[in-house]
Amino acid sequence: MIDTRLAPYGALGLRVALGLMFIAHAYLKLAVFTVPGFAGFLGQLGLPGFLAWPIILAELVGGLAILTGFYGRYVSLALLPVLLGALAVHAPNGWLFTAPNGGWEYPAFLALTAFAHVLIGDGALALRSGPLPGSRQAALA
């Protein structure tokens, strides 16, 4: 059973945590790893280094959109490939993120959190939210 009085605030909590996580990871790549360092890391994975800026900007702008509830559920859906890519990178390292080069449990958790956000919606205090296409809310709009 879902408590319809409190569920929007639960979705808000999920949205705030997910948005802040994306912003924090973008900041980490900018301030700690640096863009050239992150580009080098991508190169070590066999990915083109020019993907560094698009990934960082996706995390930063996407995190802000999710945090504020500006079509956040759509942004979470759009950022799922970034999270699944991180999951693929960390999968060979083992389960725990404390493993050398980070394990896969944290990226998996974040991907599931983003997917839950897509399903649940933006919740309370969202700037601009919208129903998913094909949903009952979209049919009523």
UniProtKB/TrEMBL annotation:
Q: Which residues are listed as membrane-spanning?
A: 12-30, 50-70, 77-96, 108-127
Q: How does it sit in the membrane?
A: Multi-pass membrane protein
Where in or outside the cell is it found? Cell membrane
Record flagged with keyword Transmembrane: yes
Pfam families reported for this sequence: DoxX (PF07681)
What keywords appear on the UniProt entry? Answer: Cell membrane, Membrane, Transmembrane, Transmembrane helix
Q: Which InterPro entries match?
A: DoxX (IPR032808), DoxX-like_oxidoreductase (IPR051907)
- What protein family does this chain belong to? Belongs to the DoxX family.
Name the chain's protein: DoxX family protein
Q: What is the lineage of its organism?
A: Bacteria, Pseudomonadati, Pseudomonadota, Alphaproteobacteria, Hyphomicrobiales
